[in-house]
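Bench log. Compound arrived from synthesis this morning; before running ITC I wanted a structural hypothesis for how adenosine-5'-diphosphate sits in the protein. Inputs:
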Amino acid sequence: MSSFYEEEKLNAAISDMAELSSLITGTENEEEFFKKLLDVALKSIPQAECATIWKIEGTLYRPVAGFPYERDILSKMVISYEDSYAYNHNIDECIVQTNNILDYYSGKNEKFYDLLSSIKTGRNRMCTIIAPLKVNAKIAGHIFIDNFSLDSFEDVAKRALKIFSNFASTFLTLKTLKDSETEANELNRVYLSFITHELKTPLTSIIGFSETILDESNMKLNAMRGYIRKIYASSRHLNSLIDDLSTFNKLNRETSLNIRRINFKQTLFEAVSIVEPNISPDVELEISYSADIPAFIETDPTKFTQVLVNIIGNAIKYTDEGSIFVHSSFDSSTKEFVISVRDTGIGISQEKLEDIFRPFYRVSKNRPGSGLGLAIVKKTIQVLKGRISVSSEEGKGSEFLIRLPLVIKTDEQ
Ligand code: ADP
């Protein structure tokens, strides 16, 4: 017979789990849901002291929620997935228990070891149980449950962890489905407006100017050439809009990679030379590298060049005077190239910054463009297992920060 206290705890755990399961609709904010899940897990597994949920994002391993860690600490705990315990011990089916997980990191990833041992302070035993999270039968991350003064968790704790990893996997699967449904609806809406507005505008000019020429039988050659120049400009604009549309569509259909080992500096230089002719005479372009940057990157050269051309091309397009700095460095803890493209151009206001990666979104419509450049960049960087972030101030300039892995490991490898 269980004691009154145990029964009370069990009842509380059951009602917490019931509440948790009612939240699994995929619409809840991911971080909030995982925090709730860990809260219930810690209460239901009496031996649990702290817990974290990690997600695999490209080549990175990132904690998305944790108890009792501050958000600030969690954000520093990002490591390369290849450096993680879960990757090296192949935790993809069952629950795994390990003692002193920290010993694994000492000497392997110093920065991460120091961070973890500063959390652990003063305790010398540690036991961890780890369960995989899956989306469509693929490993999407893991849950870690730790105790700093235990040698072993009881079997019932492992069974409880299995339930929580199933909860989290179901949540992630539903969220992935919901997100792609919302994205598809939004895309249909913007496609339609792109075709009816953006593509129609240059076409209307082409028709209008052609009619003018055809209607005026006595038109002077000079005047006619003026109209033809306008028709030519509108046609070129229409052509570049269709090019962007076709690149964007292709990206949504096929995400295959043609990975090669290429010279990093040379590829960057070639990308710059494609867009450099468009630079305003009042703008200076500076390219620099950190001393420790590796010579080669293993990536898809065409996609990599596309990203560079779009980001550096935008810096050139939206900067009328001042400078553009392209600086590349290497982050050895995540094994990523970091490319910063900073300009002193027109900048973007904070409230619009969130939207600029959306397909067809344009802030400054007085310059030519489709609003697809950054959507192409975002999608391409995702395929290249990298990340992109932006900071900007209206009227002062912008900085785009691209992170790309030294080596892309595909799922087949
Ligand atoms: P576009 O074809 O309009 O350039 P993008 O998708 O490349 O489309 O960019 C979306 C919007 O983001 C642009 O319309 C522009 O307003 C803004 N933007 C992008 N890069 C910069 C930059 N370096 N400086 C200022 N604004 C930028």
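What the model suggests: The pocket of adenosine-5'-diphosphate is lined by residues 314-315, 318, 343, 345-348, 356, 361-364, 369-375, 398 (CB under 6 Å). The chain has a mean pLDDT of 89.
ITC booked for Thursday regardless.
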